[in-house]
């Protein structure tokens, strides 16, 4: 069987633009998008990154990033980690898929939003979400495990505390504003 490992590495500040899509097909560290820590890649408004694997790159998202196991040959999880990111577009989780946001800051600006379309977002390892909105459709949900911070986030979902203490939250459909978890 051929290896399906794929690494897209940006070694300078760059723009990923156009109307195409990148399909990330294998989970874990087998499919990665990376940058040198001093550079940022800008993801264009009409472009989509979808699938599973890791996005470790410092990135400004103006398009769509989607955890989507329907394009995967293995796994159902897309991980946003490593360098901090800015979201002015849509980051979504599709049916039967998961997105982990771990140990980084995701700053949402303008119309930036996280959308759980029958999938699950997990916030882990000191993740911070600044601004923007989160919304859930169908069975979509948001789970905060351990330490995570939400600052000025508009929540279009019901926030439930986990048991026995609120170190895990699940977010489902309703409206509120969440600040300073």
Provide the helix percentage. Answer: under 10%
Widest sheet, order of strands = 1-4-7-10-13-16-19-23-22
Assembly type of the chains comes to: single chain
Largest β sheet strand count, sense and barrel closure: 9 strands, mixed
Succession of helices and strands: EEEEEEEEEEEEEEEEEEEEEEEE
Overall geometry: globular
Counting helices, strands and paired strands, the structural category is: mainly beta
- What proportion of the residues form beta strands (DSSP E)? over 45%
In the residues, how many domains can be counted?
1
Task: State the total count of DSSP E strands.
Answer: 24
Q: Which residues form runs of ≥5 with pLDDT under 50?
A: 160-181
- Mean pLDDT equals 85
Distance between the termini: 46 Å
Rounded to the nearest angstrom, the radius of gyration is 15 Å
Count of DSSP H/I helices: 0
């Amino acid at each position: 069987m051929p290896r399906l490992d794929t690494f897209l590495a940006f070694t300078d500040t760059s723009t990923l633009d156009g109307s195409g899509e990148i399909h990330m097909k294998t989970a874990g560290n087998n499919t990665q998008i990376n940058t040198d820590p001093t550079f940022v890649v800008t993801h264009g408004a009409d472009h989509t990154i979808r699938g599973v694997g890791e996005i470790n790159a410092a990135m400004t998202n103006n398009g769509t990033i989607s955890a989507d196991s329907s394009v995967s040959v293995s796994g159902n999880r897309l991980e946003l980690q490593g360098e901090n990111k800015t979201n002015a577009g849509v980051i979504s989780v599709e049916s039967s898929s998961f997105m982990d946001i771990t140990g980084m800051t995701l700053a949402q600006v303008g119309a930036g939003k996280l959308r759980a379309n029958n999938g699950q977002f997990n916030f882990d390892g000191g993740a911070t979400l600044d601004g923007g909105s989160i919304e859930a459709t169908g069975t979509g949900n948001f789970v905060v495990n351990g330490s995570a911070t939400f600052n000025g986030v508009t929540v279009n979902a019901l926030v439930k505390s986990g048991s026995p203490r609120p170190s895990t939250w699940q977010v489902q459909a309703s409206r509120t504003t969440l600040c300073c978890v």
